[in-house]
C-alpha cells in the first residue's frame, strides 16, 4: 500500500464522511448484541465515530498516523468487510459512490500537492471538533498554500 493510500485511509478513519450510519430496523428476529437485547421493530443506529476510535482496534486512535495501515489486514478495504473500519457503511446498504468519492478525494489532493507548497500557519491549527449533524472544526483551519511556479518552455 503506498503512502498516499495510507493517508486517505487514515483520513477516513479519523474523519469519516458520516458520524452515524442511517438507522435500520430489526425486522426479522430478536437479537442479542454484546449482551444487549435488540427486539423486533427496533431501530438500530451504528456510531461510526465511536467505532473509528475504539482502542481495541486502533492504537492511539485520536492521533493522525497513516503508518498504522502499512501492515494492517484492513489495507484499503472500504467495502465493509472489516467492521472496525466502515467509513462508507457495510452490507447491502453500503454507499454506492465509494469509487467516485475515493477517486475525487485522491485527484483533488494530488492536484493540491502538485500545484501548491503547503505550510502550517505560525500559530498552528486548532483541531478541536464541534458535533452537529456532521462534524466541523470549532474554528476554520487555514493552511498556507503557496503556488508553485513553473517555467513554460516556448
UniProtKB/TrEMBL annotation:
GO CC field: membrane
Binding site for heme: 95
Membrane topology: Single-pass membrane protein
Recorded GO MF terms: heme binding; iron ion binding; monooxygenase activity; oxidoreductase activity, acting on paired donors, with incorporation or reduction of molecular oxygen
Pfam families reported in the protein's UniProt record: p450
Coiled-coil stretches noted in the UniProt entry, renumbered to this chain: none
Keyword Nucleotidyltransferase belongs to the record: no
InterPro entries, per the entry: CYP450_71D, Cyt_P450, Cyt_P450_CS, Cyt_P450_E_grp-I, Cyt_P450_sf
Reported cofactor(s): heme
Keyword Zinc: no
Keywords, in A-Z order: Heme, Iron, Membrane, Metal-binding, Monooxygenase, Oxidoreductase, Transmembrane, Transmembrane helix
Entries under SUPFAM superfamilies matching the protein: Cytochrome P450
Main localization, broad class: membrane
Annotated compartments: Membrane
PANTHER family the UniProt entry points to: OS06G0641600 PROTEIN (PTHR47953:SF19), OS08G0105600 PROTEIN (PTHR47953)
Family listed: Belongs to the cytochrome P450 family.
Protein name per the record: Cytochrome P450
Amino acid at each position: 500500500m503506498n503512502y498516499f493510500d495510507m493517508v486517505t485511509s487514515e483520513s477516513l478513519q479519523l474523519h469519516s464522511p458520516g458520524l452515524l450510519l442511517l438507522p435500520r430496523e430489526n425486522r426479522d428476529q430478536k437479537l442479542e448484541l454484546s449482551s444487549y437485547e435488540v427486539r423486533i421493530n427496533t431501530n438500530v443506529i451504528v456510531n461510526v465515530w465511536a467505532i473509528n476510535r475504539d482502542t481495541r482496534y486502533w492504537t492511539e486512535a485520536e492521533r493522525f498516523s497513516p503508518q498504522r495501515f502499512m501492515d494492517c489486514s484492513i489495507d484499503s478495504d472500504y467495502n465493509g468487510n472489516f467492521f472496525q473500519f466502515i467509513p462508507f457503511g457495510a452490507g447491502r446498504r453500503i454507499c454506492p459512490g465509494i469509487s467516485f468519492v475515493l477517486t475525487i478525494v485522491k485527484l483533488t489532493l494530488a492536484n493540491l500537492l502538485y500545484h501548491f507548497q503547503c505550510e502550517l500557519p505560525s500559530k498552528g491549527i486548532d483541531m478541536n471538533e464541534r458535533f452537529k449533524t456532521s462534524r466541523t472544526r470549532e474554528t476554520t483551519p487555514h493552511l498556507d498554500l503557496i503556488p508553485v511556479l513553473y517555467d513554460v518552455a516556448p
